[in-house]
Write a structure and sequence with these properties.
Blueprint: E1 4-9, E2 15-18, E3 24-29, H1 34-43, H2 45-61, H3 68-93, E4 100-103, E5 110-112, E6 118-121, H4 129-141, H5 150-159, H6 163-178
Parallel strand pairs: 1-3, 4-6
Antiparallel strand pairs: 2-3, 5-6
Helix pairs in contact: 3-4, 4-5
Length: 183
């Protein structure tokens, strides 16, 4: 696993990232062994090959990177869009929330703290409107269920019956959007 960068943290699950140079980065909980990481990588070998090919194709075609100025424009746009969506959907869901922050996050589209503060990725402005709605609804549903249990997903589905399509869109297209940020 010499070509694999392993980052251990307090997370609960493993995640694979394909970096711009094609090397693998695995984020894993502290309790996961190297052998379990190897098994995970073996299980995900088809996914890894597919996404390495995507990264290579993006490099060959000169995928347009987002500059700091581009990110600032997206953040400004998000400040004008996301809070309104949060306000509207919070009323429908019947929850309150704290502060709303727009950031340029490396791996997340949004997050919700235990205090009810909401963070959203400015890159959401590069996704379809209904995908933005899904991310806002997802984070607000954490105000009822601070986990990803079946109760949580039932809350999301109640608000957005076709949420699985939006989630799928993010899984299929989100990585490409996030890789446009020069890091």
């Amino acid at each position: 696993m010499t070509d694999v960068e392993i980052i251990r943290s307090k997370r609960k699950s493993m995640e694979i990232q394909i970096c711009l140079d094609g090397h693998l980065r695995v984020r894993a909980p502290h309790f996961i062994t190297d052998a379990e990481i190897k098994d995970f990588l073996r299980e995900k070998s088809n996914w890894i090959s597919k996404h390495r090919a995507v990264v290579k194709r993006e490099q060959e075609t000169g995928m347009q990177r987002l500059s700091a100025q581009d990110i600032k424009k997206l953040a400004d746009e998000a400040v004008g869009v996301i809070p309104e969506k949060v306000h509207r959907f919070a009323k429908q869901i019947g929850v309150d929330y704290g502060r709303i922050t727009i950031r340029n996050q490396k791996t997340r589209w949004g997050s919700c703290s235990a205090k009810g503060n909401l963070n959203f990725n400015c890159l959401l402005m590069l996704t379809p409107d209904d995908v933005q709605d899904y991310v806002v609804i997802h984070e607000l549903c954490h105000r009822k269920q601070m986990n990803h249990s079946s109760k949580f997903w039932a809350e999301v589905e109640h608000m957005m019956p076709d949420y699985k399509q939006k989630r799928k869109w993010l899984k299929e297209n989100g990585g490409e959007i996030m890789r446009r940020v020069a890091r």
